[in-house]
Amino acid sequence: MKFGTAGLLLAVVMGSTAAAQGPQLPEQDRVLARQIFREFIETNSQDSNGSVTAVSEAARKEFLKAGFAPGDLILAGPNDRKQNLVVRYHGVAGSKLKPILIIGHTDVVEARRSDWTTDPYTFIEKDGYFYGRGTQDMKDGDADVVESLIRMHREGYVPDRDIVLALTADEEGGKSNGVRWLLKNRPDLMEADFVINPDGGGPTLYDGKAIELDVEATQKTYADYHVIATNPGGHSSVPRPDNAIYELMHALEKLEASPFPVELNAVTRASLEESEKVTTPARAADIRGVLKTPPDPKAVADFSKEPNDNATLRTTCVATMLKGGHAANALPGEAEANVNCRILPGHSQEEVRKTLIGIFNDPKLTVEYAADDGTVSPTAPDRESQAPPPLRADVFGPLHQVAEEMWPGMLVIPSMSVGASDSIYTMKSGIPSYGIGGAGIEYNDDRMHGRDERLGVDSYYKSVEFFYLYLKALTK
């Protein structure tokens, strides 16, 4: 689930040099990368009727053909459809360095054929794009790393430490999240110095030009809450003021009118400081106002008009599902809303639940927490979300080097994802985690989770080359 930053850079408008061509993927690897990508896309891995195991087995087959030892290709998971694949690429013998762990989910968001102009599970190349469910999120990143490891193995490259790749289930939904399952049941496979997650960050393109490479250096915490209004109901011919739907509606109006406070952390502050240097004059002025201590209220209001910018500044909560009533001629005795929150680092899900109760200020409402597995409970976890990891030189130094080689002049900007990825699990286990992707997406062509998902052909091949170069730069 990738998310980029907002704001068009002046460097693009003025003709940035960032569009210069970098290293190109060799033809042999281009053919293999397309084959792997196609096979992944054409394997249905949505939760309702697909199989993550089938993707894992397809990847394992490619590694075996390339000469990887069977013992370094571990299938593990809770059931037949949710088998994760963990691949170990061995480094120099006797290395004292802990492994680098790369995580990539292979499940996808549900896709209905009737919503698409093409079959979501048929890999189609047309008009300079690859179409299919998962082309942006995130089977492109999975294929990038699989092809890169095979290429390194073919060349006989020996890294300074082990590289571990975990292709996993249920990031997008379902009850068998692969990263969480592996950390709990096979922690021996997941030991690492740090994590690279291609499901976060990546180049933003404007008319095909790479303008910035966002790195997910922290992210919000995901939480769902069930807000429930109840009353006795009654005959619809005699309307009552305590109608459950009305009560719920008023609560949601209060939520809309009560934004959470502005709060910056080290990553969002650094991201804004970098963006301020190169964005439009009006946006730069707003950023300077936001960065003041205390923030300038007018600048905050103006900056917050763009939804992604607003989500960068504060915890956000929004109603995403509603249900209520049981008959067309009866007052509803119960109405329920799912309120989805994306919580800033440093705050707990229980803290936000209590904040919601305070905003609603209605003892007739209950606010319950709905966990990822569907379990509903009266309280939420009270553990604070993880603070941002340090911006490590051994992660960012090689990244700057490769980004300059691939896209000369492009900025590398640490950012906070306003969504969430599987890095929440590795961060909770104490492993610094960074969302680093290589596939450039046009700023106005984000089709993740949507219909007719697609990725530029050139963007895909450049992302494969990017990961190959980056993995070698990390492990010299």
Protein topology:
Elements: H1 10-13, H2 27-41, H3 52-65, E1 73-76, E2 84-89, E3 100-105, E4 124-126, E5 129-131, H4 139-155, E6 163-168, H5 178-185, E7 194-197, E8 202-206, E9 209-219, E10 221-230, E11 234-235, H6 244-256, H7 266-276, H8 281-291, H9 297-303, H10 307-313, E12 316-324, E13 330-331, E14 334-343, H11 349-360, E15 365-370, E16 376-377, H12 393-406, E17 411-417, H13 423-428, E18 433-435, E19 441-442, E20 454-456, H14 457-474
Parallel strand pairs: 3-6, 3-7, 7-18, 8-19, 9-17
Antiparallel strand pairs: 1-2, 2-6, 4-5, 5-20, 8-9, 10-14, 10-15, 11-13, 12-14, 15-16
Helix pairs in contact: 2-4, 4-14, 7-8, 8-9, 12-14
Can you describe what's shown?
It is a single chain. The chain is of the alpha/beta class and 476 residues long. The protein has two domains: 297 residues, Zn peptidases (Aminopeptidase, 3-Layer(aba) Sandwich), CATH 3.40.630.10; 103 residues, Alpha-Beta Plaits. The protein contains 14 helices and 20 strands. The strands form five sheets. Strands 1-2-6-3-7-18 form a six-stranded mixed β-sheet, sandwiched between helices. Strands 12-14-10-15-16 form a five-stranded antiparallel β-sheet, with helices on one face. The longest helix is centred in the C-terminal third of the chain and has 18 residues. The radius of gyration is 23 Å and the shape is globular. The protein starts with 9 loop residues before the first helix and ends with a helix.
